[in-house]
Design a protein that fits this description.
The complex is a heterodimer of chains A (about 650) and B (about 450). Chain A is an alpha/beta fold and about 650 residues long. Among the domains of chain A are: about 295-420, Four Helix Bundle (Hemerythrin (Met), subunit A) (Up-down Bundle), CATH 1.20.120; about 440-565 and about 600-640, Translation initiation factor eif-2b, domain 2 (Rossmann fold), CATH 3.40.50.10470. Chain A is about 60% helix and about 5% strand. Chain A has helices spanning about 1-15, 25, 30-35, 40-45, 45-55, 60-70, 75-80, 85-105, 110-130, 140-155, 160-170, 175-210, 210-235, 240-255, 265-275, 300-305, 315-325, 335-350, 360-375, 380-395, 405-435, 450-460, 480-490, 500-505, 530-540, 590-595, 625-640, and strands at about 440-445, 465-475, 495-500, 510-515, 520, 525-530, 545-550, 555, 605, 615, 620. In chain A, helix 9 (about 110-130) runs parallel beside helix 12 and helix 18 runs parallel beside helix 20 (about 380-395). Chain B has about 450 residues and is α/β, with parallel strands linked by helices. Classes of the chains: A alpha/beta (about 650), B alpha/beta (about 450). The interface of A and B includes residues 211, 304, 335, 336 and 339 of A. Chain B: This is Translation initiation factor eIF2B subunit gamma.
Chain lengths: ~650, ~450
């Protein structure tokens, strides 16, 4: 193991060495720059002095989290194995990181926390980096080595108040803004490096086993090296404010535009005129969710179909995908994303630039038209949003010198690469990671039908592991039955139950595997409705919850509830029982009685990160707190490929 | 949208004698003063389908139809006229023009369909399911109860044989069984029944003769089964019957795609992606059936036969009998008058004599003259007709250049072009062929009058 790591250390050092002129300057900076950032707190020093312990109350959350998490340890105790402690062991330190990480990026006076934390973050960073790269092969011995480290990190947290006090006193009158942003930059760089390292190691390790993965590695490496110089130079030139402004601007550009509120009547008119589909009436919709786009139910299908030949500017492939979204023939984040990308690919192949227009601009607007058509059929998922951003950035970055056919082939191969790297390969990596967490005798619980989880279960079954699966399902989609069928066909032993009986099966379960539609940068998991309940019940029963999600589904948005952003399903679907026409208690109500009835069929919910033990992603197994790291690293990567 | 449209206009139809003749092939039979083919072409034009192939039986008919189309749709549609020999059936006609078909999917429309169902809806269903064939079903039109029942009853009895027995799956998306005539026994494939589990048999639906075919499938079937004559009676039932054991030929295209990817790894990835996509969609019984019980990859080839059921509010009738002709004439001027393309509604107002009344749901062609004290109710009168005094026309169709003498009474009849009705003729439920001369004072009831073939 050591010998192997040494041999691999050479390229790793080379890669880091690219930044060596800057990295030594970084290490002292936490001490020197952190004081400089304390000037705003100093200007209103009494307030900030009293504020800072409120923002980060170290004793409270230490005890809190340790209490909560060590309470979670009994599970490993029950398991009597060294593997599960990995879940429990890194949690305390990481949850500390999480508690102070959200304010860090927000307000100026949290600089204190950042300075303090970054000074001791060194322990933890090495720790979590190791963890993120803890691969199926190396996971065991690393986890044993980690125990003392995490303890050390926790202990190092204790001197935090004194240290921060000392730093505050050191505070000098330097420019606060500059220092703040440079620090943020450095942190981002550092973390992206770490993520990249973890990814490259994951790639390297994996390339040993399957033959296909090795080809992707050289493809991935150069972009990262390419993206090195500009970032490094921005660090070197970090004293200049101009750079920071441009960075800020770019960041603003990346932010999603404010979403349309559907209860805003002043804006509704314009959208209605432009839309292809009729907007259904807003009758009998739940007050709290009126801001969400209303569900376009199947009755729109013939209407859209009748326009089949009229909407000739929509490519037939895109049209087909839109129809499938609308009819509900195609669901699931990955499948929808792949179908959309393949349709775009076909559209790009058939595309020809009209005269007196440039490909870049015309194609971008064309793709935009496709996307808005697809949104009308069904709101986009986060993964699709990310894929669209990738495609648009690829179009925007096409060199002007390319001929049209070259540009088209480039884009098509880019799309292929996106599908292969971000979905197919990512899934394969996730399989290998997650399969290490399945042991003989396990009882695994899953909810709904997630394609990654299904692949994990089948993969583990192929490996010859002996385990049982509990498939939890819920109305009205009953997707679990599809999963159940496929699992049973492959010979797994399964238990099928409904969501409302979950607390009765949970005590037998040893692991919960969940899929996700998206993961937000505060660690919130956005997934099929019901996932949150499953995760909470599992948490209450001290069962570890593993969320499996490809990194391209991560989103930088922060969301705290499932109200402000969600998707509405067909309200009639929940009032009917499939196959039972005789169950129609709601049908014979009079119209007046129905006026008081509001049906709510939500599609998604948000699971707070507290209930998630680990996120299995293509960059490794990470705690929910590390999502922003990957989001940032990922963003750089896909913009600069 | 990568659809090619074939309009099977037909030629002379035996069902419609004496209305159609050599001079007036079926596609040009006027319905409310404009040829029936106009309804189909107008509908297609509305759907932005401007490249059409119109297949006509017989060279002479093709010339006539071609002349009319080029005169009417001169710069609006791009139409190819293909003449095929008579009596080779619909499948034969398609076989004859098979080498013209290049697009991925073929939309086949019968030229005698009077409908307001957008063809796009059918095409969308076809695409959504990636079906081999999609057919449009519509509810059987209410056969018009004319005031005088006798002939209507006779026609209805004849029509009974045309009912379709149609088997649908519970979601009403797939066609499981189709039989044209009522036989004593209906043979239903046990395999299909087993795979679906539940089949709904309907007799209140009618095949509207609008099909979307996957081109490869259609051409293969036409090539191999060279005895097939009719789309409706041979090709469609064959495809429906064989949907769960379709020969490898029907699935040739996907295999070709796979072979083009030479690399093993990329093929592996393709399989991965297709598995994700397949798992995401709700499996139809085809998919479930094609899976072998032991879970290995699909070896059984299937294809899908879909249906698009037009909503009951839409209008959809085929002009394939005299009764249907009367019904369509009545409906087009009455309930379904939105079908008339605006440029063909009415010419300059005809000259009417004193005390002549024209009731509702009537249509008068340009240049027609009517004498005094006529009564016209629910009737259509063509161009340049001369109608004398005291004529009563109810529920009738009078085509162009007809001369009607004084005191005629016409009820529920069709009078073709250039017919001369002398004084005091009484016609009830009759069809008068083109150029016939009805002598003065004669009375006919439920008869078909035509010139003797020379």
């Amino acid at each position: 193991m050591d010998a192997r790591r040494m041999s691999r250390a050479v390229p790793r050092v080379r890669q880091v060495g690219f930044f060596t002129p800057n990295t030594p300057a970084q290490q002292p900076q936490p001490q020197s720059a952190a004081p400089s950032s304390e000037s705003p707190p100093l200007s209103d020093s009494p307030a900030s002095n009293s504020l800072s312990p409120v923002m980060i109350p170290p004793p409270r959350h230490l005890s809190d989290n340790l209490g909560g998490r060590t309470a979670a340890v009994p599970v490993p105790g029950r398991e009597n194995s060294g593997e599960l402690p990995t879940v429990g062991s890194y949690n305390p330190s990481e949850s500390v990181l999480w508690l102070d990480s959200p304010p860090r990026s927000r307000i100026g006076d949290v600089e204190l926390s950042e300075g303090a934390e970054s000074s001791l973050g060194w322990y933890r960073r090495s720790d979590s980096a190791k963890f993120a790269s803890s691969l199926p092969s190396g996971g065991f011995n690393l986890s044993t080595a980690k125990h003392p480290e995490s303890v050390a990190a926790v202990e190092a947290k204790n001197p935090l108040p004194e240290q921060s006090e000392a730093q505050k006193e050191q505070a000098s009158s330097s420019k606060p803004l500059k220092a703040k942003t440079t620090k943020a930059e450095r942190r981002a760089l550092q973390e992206s490096q770490r993520a990249a390292k973890a990814a490259s190691r994951a790639q390297a390790n994996k390339s040993g086993t399957p033959g296909g993965a090795s080809s992707s590695k050289p493809m991935k490496q150069p972009p990262q090296k390419k993206d090195g110089p500009p970032v490094a130079s921005s660090i070197a030139a970090s004293e200049r404010i101009g750079v920071d402004w441009s960075v800020e601007k770019e960041r603003k550009k990346d932010l999603p535009p404010p979403r349309k509120q559907f209860d805003d009547e002043s804006r509704g008119g314009r959208a209605k005129r432009r839309s292809v589909l009729n907007q259904p009436e807003a009758r009998n919709r739940v007050e709290l969710f009126r801001h969400l786009p209303p569900h376009k139910n199947g009755t729109q299908l013939p209407y859209l179909g009748s326009k089949f030949f009229e909407l000739h500017e929509k490519h037939p492939a895109v049209y087909k995908v839109g129809l499938q979204y609308l009819a509900g023939d195609l669901s699931g984040g990955n499948a929808r994303c792949i179908a959309m990308l393949q349709a775009f690919q076909e559209a790009i192949r058939d595309y020809s630039t009209p005269p007196e227009k440039t490909l870049t601009r015309d194609l971008t607007s064309k793709i935009g038209g496709f996307v808005s058509f697809l949104i009308e059929c069904r709101p986009l998922s986060m993964s699709m949003g990310n894929a669209i951003r990738f495609l648009k950035s690829r179009i925007a970055r096409l060199p002007l010198t390319l001929s049209e056919s070259e540009a088209k082939t480039t884009l098509c191969s880019d799309i292929d690469r996106f599908i292969n790297e971000k979905i197919v390969l990512a899934d394969k990596v996730i399989l290998r990671h997650a399969a290490t967490k399945i042991r003989d005798g396990d009882v695994l619980l899953t909810y709904g039908s997630s394609c990654v989880v299904e692949m994990i279960l089948l993969y583990a079954h192929e490996l010859g592991k002996q385990f049982r699966v509990v498939v939890v399902d819920s109305h009205p989609m009953l997707e679990g039955q599809k999963l159940l069928r496929r699992l049973l066909v492959k010979g797994l032993s399964c238990t099928y139950t409904q969501l409302n009986a979950i607390s009765y099966v949970m005590h037998k379960v040893t692991r919960v595997f969940l899929g996700a539609s998206s993961i937000f940068s505060n660690g919130t998991v956005y997934s099929t409705v019901g996932t949150a309940s499953v995760a909470m019940v599992a948490h209450a029963f001290r069962v570890p919850v593993l969320v499996c999600c490809e990194a391209y589904k991560f989103h930088e948005r922060v969301q705290l509830d499932s109200i402000c952003f969600n998707e509405l399903g067909d309200p009639d679907a929940i009032s009917k029982v499939p196959g039972r026409v005789d169950v129609n208690y709601l049908d014979n109500l009079t119209d007046k009685q129905k006026e008081n009835l509001e049906l709510l069929n939500l599609k998604y919910d948000a699971t707070p990160s507290d209930y998630i033990s680990v996120i299995v992603t293509d960059y490794g197994m990470i705690p929910p707190t590390s999502v922003p790291v990957i989001v940032r690293g990922y963003r750089k990567e896909y913009l600069l490929i | 949208m990568d659809f090619q449209v074939v309009v099977l206009a037909g030629g002379n139809s035996k069902n419609l004698t004496p209305l159609v003749s050599k001079e007036l092939p079926k596609p040009l039979l006027p319905v409310a003063n404009c040829p029936v083919l106009n309804y189909v072409l107008h509908q297609l034009e509305q759907s932005n389908l401007k490249d059409l192939i119109v297949v006509v039986e017989g060279e002479d008919a093709a010339l006539l139809v071609g002349a009319w189309i080029s005169g009417t749709f001169i710069d609006r549609l791009h139409v190819e006229i293909a003449a095929v020999p008579e009596d080779i059936g619909t499948a034969g006609a398609l076989r004859a023009i098979s080498h013209h078909l290049t697009a991925k999917d073929i939309l086949v429309v019968s030229g005698d369909l009077v409908s307001d169902v957008p063809p796009g809806a059918l095409a969308a269903t076809h695409r959504r399911h990636d079906a081999a064939v999609t057919t449009m079903l519509c509810s059987i039109p209410v056969s018009g109860p004319l005031e005088s029942g006798s002939s209507g009853g006779k026609d209805k009895a004849k029509k009974l044989g045309r009912y379709n027995i149609i088997g649908l799956d519970p979601s009403k998306q797939f066609l499981l069984h189709i039989a044209t005539e009522i036989e004593k026994d209906a043979r239903i494939s046990k395999r299909i029944l087993h795979a679906v589990g539940q089949m709904e048999m309907r007799s209140d639906l009618m095949d509207a003769h609008m099909y979307a075919f996957k081109r490869s499938v259609l051409q293969e079937v036409l090539d191999i089964k060279d005895t097939f004559q009719s789309l409706k009676e041979d090709v469609l039932p064959y495809l429906v019957r064989s949907q769960l054991k379709s020969e490898a030929l029907l699935n040739r295209t996907p295999q070709g795609e796979e072979n083009s990817n030479e690399k093993v790894s990329s093929q592996n990835n393709q399989a991965f992606i297709s598995r994700i996509l397949a798992n995401a969609s709700t499996p139809s019984f085809h998919g479930l059936y094609s899976e072998n019980p032991d879970g290995s990859s699909s070896t059984r080839k299937t294809h899908k036969c879909c249906v698009y059921i037009a909503s009951s509010s839409s209008y959809c009738v085929r002009l394939n009998s005299i009764q249907a002709f009367m019904d369509i004439n009545r409906d087009v001027t009455g309930d379904a008058d939105h079908l008339l393309s605006p440029n063909n509604i009415i010419g300059p107002s005809p000259k009417l004599g004193t005390k002549t009344t024209v009731g509702p749901n009537c249509r008068l062609g340009e240049g027609s003259e009517m004498g005094d004290k006529c009564q016209v109710k629910r009737s259509i009168i063509g161009r340049h007709c001369r109608i004398g005094s005291h004529v009563k026309a109810v529920n009738s169709v009078v085509m162009n250049h007809v001369t009607i003498g004084d005191g005629c009474i016409i009820q529920g009849s069709v009078i073709c072009s250039n017919v001369q009705l002398q004084e005091r003729v009484v016609l009830k439920d009759c069809q008068v062929g083109a150029g016939f001369v009805v002598t003065a004072g004669s009375e006919y009831k439920a008869e078909s009058l035509a010139k003797k073939e020379k």
